[in-house]
Amino acid sequence: MSVSPAHPADSSDPSGLSGDPKSSPDAVAPALTDQRIVVLDFGSQYAQLIARRVREQNVYCQILRHDLSAERIAELAPKGIILSGGPSSVYDEGAPRCDPELFRLGIPVLGICYGMQLACEALGGKVDNTETREYGHATCQIVQPGTLFDKLPDAIDVWMSHGDQVSSISDSFEALARTRTCPYAAIGHKELPVYGMQFHPEVTHTPLGGQVLANFVRGICGCEPNWQLSDFAEAAITQIRDRVGDRRVICGLSGGVDSSVVAALLYKAIGTQLTCILIDNGLLRKNEQSLVIDEFSNHFKTDLHVVHAEDRFLASLAGVAEPQEKRRRIGHDFIECFKKEAESIDNAHFLAQGTLYPDVIESGADPDGPAATIKLHHNVGGLPEELGFELIEPLRDLFKDEVRRLGLELGLPEKLVWRHPFPGPGLAVRCLGEVTRDKLEVLRAADAIVIEEIENAGLYRETSQTFAVLLPVQSVGVMGDARTYDNAIAVRSVNTNDFMTADWSRLPYDLLARISTRIINEVQGVNRVCYDISSKPPATIEWE
Ligand code: XMP
User: Fold this and answer.
1) Does position 28 have pLDDT exceeding 60, yes or no?
2) Is residue 540 within 6 Å of ligand 1 at its C-beta?
3) 29 C-alpha to center of ligand 1: Å?
4) What is the number of the ligand 1 atom nearest to the C-alpha of 536?
5) Cα distance between residue 446 and residue 440, in whole Å
6) Is the pLDDT of residue 130 over 80?
7) Which residue's C-alpha comes closest to atom 21 of ligand 1?
8) Are 249 and 212 in the same domain?
9) Which residue has the higher pLDDT, 324 or 3?
10) Looking at the predicted structure, is the pLDDT value of residue 278 above 50?
11) Do residues 333 and 354 share a domain?
């Protein structure tokens, strides 16, 4: 139900990971394929992106903690190991290291940036701190075609982002590629299947990076492309059926993509043994309730309970202007409403949740996974364990873009699958200050216009999150011959990969003009529209 902080808005963005089969009763993927690549995470901002890029080769990829023992890695039997980059210098005290024995397991290893420097350090080679940090585009000359650089031209554009670099290699290594400033842009060990590259093949700024990774994963590691979402869905459905037996599963629906895909998957698995609950807290977007009802009552014929709790939520929000207090009250009411409804459902044993792979990685739930680095800071809409249900989390192996593709495969409409994220506390955090029914009506109408115009301009999928905010100010205007003293709406539209940082969308002026004119003409009580041009940080995406 909650909005994950990692909501890629296009299919080329990163997202999260899954667990060891022992750690998760829902781990479907490892049973699906005996071929996996593992990424050891040294704190790189790109670790998830590497895993996603590998999965684009239809090869299953997991992110693991960097200090996992070589013994444990051998037990997991990956077909290849990728050492991610990271912010440290190999000479820093306490810099993260891997078990050097892993280079001798006979499993192919690819070190990227910091990972390459670790490989060199372990196997002979010198890493130097360069005077200036190299950050940006470079042209990489391939000096040893084949293997890593199979099917690539003699020179490729690459993206560099490093301070240290390998300055000399031992006789055991050979240079495979170089740039003007970096003599060892890529290296290969002469006897062991160990490779390194100083540049980042996983980012889109290395346009042919996908081929480099494919050469490692498919060519060097010999992985078959057998990670398919259709197989995933089939395996997940069988696993859900086996686990659930004749008991009942409850699934909270929010209108968001994660909970919708969970519900669709469960419906395919157990049909009428699924009960969905939608709490209408009065803070939903225009037509949100009908969209959910249409999809889950009319299309998928699930047993859908809609709880009309608008009055309750608005009563508890009355007189409250402080954003965190608004969130707290909404979260509390949500749990109470959900609990009450769930108690009325016979034989309910399981609660389904849309936990995704990034949530698993970041929560530290996988004992082999990297420790939590970024804690989820939004938990409104989450449900506490005390509800007493066993959890079913069928998406915990998937990245966001995979969830979207799965949704389409399960027959969910594009409109739902590509919805922008919406915060658990809903319109309450976009109606600044005290929330009232009247203000919500103004905001909902303005928001619907913003979305409609963005869709008409063909820009909905181009932006990551777009919405209206009702500001707590009145300003003077003139309409016809009369002076007005009315509300102001802010339009917010951002582009982001991970929702942790974001830039404001460069929407065309004509589109902004249309949005403004329509809101002022069609929404009573608004006489001014502003466009928010702040990036995150220092601003946040939401205004509260
Ligand atoms: P901020 O405003 O922190 O938002 O830049 C980042 C992303 O998180 C969403 N968000 C929330 N989601 N409960 C949620 O489930 C919340 O309280 C909450 N606050 C922000 C926001 O919409 C954006 O996608």
Assistant:
1) no
2) yes
3) 29
4) 5
5) 10
6) no
7) 423
8) no
9) 324
10) yes
11) yes
Rounded distance, CA 338 to CA 319, Å? 24
**Domain final residue, candidates 220, 251, 278:** 220
Mean confidence (pLDDT) of the chain: 89
CA of 450 to the centre of ligand 1 (A): 19
- Per-residue model confidence (pLDDT) at position 5: 34
Nearest-CA residue for ligand 1 atom 4 is 541
* Residue ranges making up the domain that contains 467: 431-531
Q: 216 and 264 share a domain? A: no
Burial group, residue 182, by CB count within 10 angstroms (0-12, 13-18, 19+): buried
Quote the CA–CA distance of 334 and 319 in Å, as a whole number. Answer: 19
**Would you say residue 356 lies in a domain?**
yes
Question: Facing residues of 278 across strands?
Answer: 253, 306
Claim to verify: residue 233 and residue 356 sit in the same structural domain: yes
Same domain? 86 vs 211? yes
Report which ligand 1 atom has the smallest distance to the Cα of 2.
15
Question: Is ligand 1 within 6 A of the CB of residue 378?
Answer: yes
Euclidean distance between CA atoms 61 and 375, whole angstroms? 22
Question: Which residue among 542, 543, 544 has the greatest number of ligand 1 atoms within 8 angstroms of its CB, and so is best to mutate?
Answer: 542
Final residue of a domain: which of 220, 254, 283?
220
pLDDT, tens digit (0-9, with 9 covering 90-100), for 131-151: 666 788 999 999 999 899 999
Q: How many domains does the chain have?
A: 3
Distance of CA 457 to CAs 270, 447, 453, 465, Å?
A: 40, 15, 6, 15
Q: Is 202 a catalytic residue?
A: yes
> Active site residue: 7, 162, 189, 200, which one?
200
Residue 251 has pLDDT above 90, yes or no: yes
200 is catalytic: yes
Set 98, 113, 221, 223: catalytic member? 113
Average the pLDDT over 409-414 and give the result.
Answer: 94
Q: Are residues 456 and 517 in the same domain?
A: yes
Q: Is the CB of 381 under 6 A from ligand 1?
A: yes
Residues 174 and 286 in one domain: no
Q: Quick check: is 333 in a domain?
A: yes
Q: 405 and 379 in one domain?
A: yes
Q: How confident is the model at residue 359 (pLDDT cuts 50, 70, 90)?
A: confident
DSSP 43: S
**CA–CA separation, 200 vs 184, rounded Å?**
14
* Total-model pTM: 0.82
